[in-house]
């Protein structure tokens, strides 16, 4: 009968997985309450759903330490590898909404709101599917090599498109015509834009760090030094995702996207006149 070492190639320790499960469950509640109070657009519940999925992943990891099975191991890998893709989607949608609300005529097709949202969304889905298939295959010895390479391709695609996304963010940030049409409290539009761009850039960079770690982990191979370094998982994956949620919650990202925020508060003519 397979043991925990047969699946993990090492013996995971108790403590970090349980702590992570509790933290992500608490984050799910906090984000859901914050989103409800802000009367934010329904799509912003992506954050709460992602935190819930992360919590489930670490619960499964804790269970696997004592009661391992192929199904549990596969589901654990899926729940820990895939949810951050939803955070990338959240950022893509956030920038697309800023561009749409601003009403700036797009001289380049890559600055059209629908292109920003759907182009990067499609890349996210492709990366998600490849990582999902690869993660499932790594649980069996006969397909572990093929699964590793499929995961590598999925993660590489994510890194490339995250880099392209950061370039797009930089363009929007530098152009004063792009504004945050809806902003919380007494915050003016310029300050709101700065804060939202800080949220988007910092969380995307953290996600990039996490994806680089996962890429190196799979490149090193199943059972390699990086895979067997359990501390690396909690530092470069768990803490990176926790830091992303700290930014989202601390800077109140959901308040920037209230329901019915499809129209900018200032017209294009007013924006041009203000420059």
UniProtKB/TrEMBL annotation:
It is a multi-pass membrane protein. Pfam families: RTA1 (PF04479). The chain crosses the membrane at residues 15-33, 69-90, 115-134, 146-173, 194-213, 233-257. Keywords: Membrane, Transmembrane, Transmembrane helix. It comes from the Eukaryota. GO terms for cellular component: membrane. It is found in: Membrane. This is RTA1-domain-containing protein. It comes from Coemansia biformis.
């Amino acid at each position: 009968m397979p043991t925990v070492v047969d699946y993990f190639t090492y013996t995971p320790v108790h403590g970090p997985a349980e702590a992570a499960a509790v933290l992500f469950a608490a984050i799910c509640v906090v984000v859901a309450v914050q989103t409800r109070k802000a009367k934010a657009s329904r799509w912003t519940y992506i954050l709460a759903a992602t935190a819930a999925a992360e919590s489930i992943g670490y619960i499964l990891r804790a269970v696997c330490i004592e009661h391992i099975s192929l199904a549990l191991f596969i589901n654990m890998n899926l729940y820990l590898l895939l949810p951050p893709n939803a955070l990338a989607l959240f950022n893509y949608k956030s920038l697309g909404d800023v561009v749409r609300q601003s009403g700036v005529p797009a001289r380049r097709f890559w600055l059209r709101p629908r292109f920003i949202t759907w182009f990067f969304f499609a890349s996210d889905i492709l990366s998600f599917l490849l990582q999902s298939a690869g993660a499932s295959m790594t649980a069996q010895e006969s397909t572990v090599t093929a699964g590793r390479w499929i995961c590598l391709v999925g993660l590489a695609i994510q890194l490339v498109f995250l880099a392209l996304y950061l370039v797009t963010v930089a363009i929007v940030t530098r152009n004063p015509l792009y504004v945050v049409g809806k902003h919380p409290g007494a915050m003016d539009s310029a300050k709101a834009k700065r804060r939202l761009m800080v949220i988007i850039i910092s969380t995307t960079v953290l996600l990039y760090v996490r994806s680089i770690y996962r890429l190196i982990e799979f490149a090193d191979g199943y059972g390699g030094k990086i895979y067997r370094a359990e501390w690396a998982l909690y530092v470069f994956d768990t803490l990176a995702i926790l830091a992303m949620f700290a930014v989202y919650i601390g800077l109140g990202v959901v308040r920037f996207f209230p329901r019915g925020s499809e129209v900018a508060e200032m017209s294009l003519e007013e924006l041009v006149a203000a420059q």
